[in-house]
Amino acid sequence: MLQIKSFTFNPFSENTYVLFDETKEAVIIDPGCYEKQEKGILYDFITKEQLKPVKIINTHCHIDHVLGNAFIKKTYNIPLWFHAEEEPILKAVSSYSSNYGFAQYQESSVDHFLQEGEIVKFGNTELMPLWVPGHSPGHLVFYHQASKTCIAGDTLFQGSIGRTDLPGGDHETLINAIKEKLFNLPDDVVIYPGHGPSTTIGYEKLNNPFVGKNAVN
């Protein structure tokens, strides 16, 4: 049975997720831990639960979602996976990280380019990657059909959507991708976003001011 543990890290209040099942194998999605205390919180949870991390996955590679990549890779000696179109986004982080107050940012490198539809396996769990661009060009979300949960990164939020004014972003692309990919999931699927509280597909279909039933685009 899939279990999801969330942590909120760094000044951007980014949601980091640890997914694991009864085998104790785990994947860490979007490790945003930067400060020593944040790294300790994540490490202590993994240790307490006796988890075995096997992969790091980035939904996308904006700074707030990758601050802990290097720490996790080094600590657990595990590979980093994300979509190929995110590699330039990740490489650019070191050029501006100090401007955001992250002078001690450590670079990380990809080990595997993940494609839409390529099943991510750990333990007895399988995640389905869906390509939902617009916030960033190679943004993936990860759907677990059995538990009807989706790790959505910065695509769909409770009452909002990801910003599209960053390099590689496009508003119309994101709107269409949400409607075509996420809104085709069952209404009771729980969305775990990159920032803020969880929500459901059904709620956002009805109420989201950007993509919901009464949205004006």
From TrEMBL:
<dbReference type="InterPro" id="IPR036866">
    <property type="entry name" value="RibonucZ/Hydroxyglut_hydro"/>
</dbReference>
<keyword id="KW-0378">Hydrolase</keyword>
<dbReference type="Pfam" id="PF00753">
    <property type="entry name" value="Lactamase_B"/>
</dbReference>
<feature type="domain" description="Metallo-beta-lactamase">
    <location>
        <begin position="13"/>
        <end position="195"/>
    </location>
</feature>
<keyword id="KW-0479">Metal-binding</keyword>
<dbReference type="GO" id="GO:0016787">
    <property type="term" value="F:hydrolase activity"/>
</dbReference>
<dbReference type="InterPro" id="IPR051453">
    <property type="entry name" value="MBL_Glyoxalase_II"/>
</dbReference>
<dbReference type="GO" id="GO:0046872">
    <property type="term" value="F:metal ion binding"/>
</dbReference>
<protein>
    <submittedName>
        <fullName>MBL fold hydrolase</fullName>
    </submittedName>
</protein>
<keyword id="KW-0862">Zinc</keyword>
<dbReference type="InterPro" id="IPR001279">
    <property type="entry name" value="Metallo-B-lactamas"/>
</dbReference>
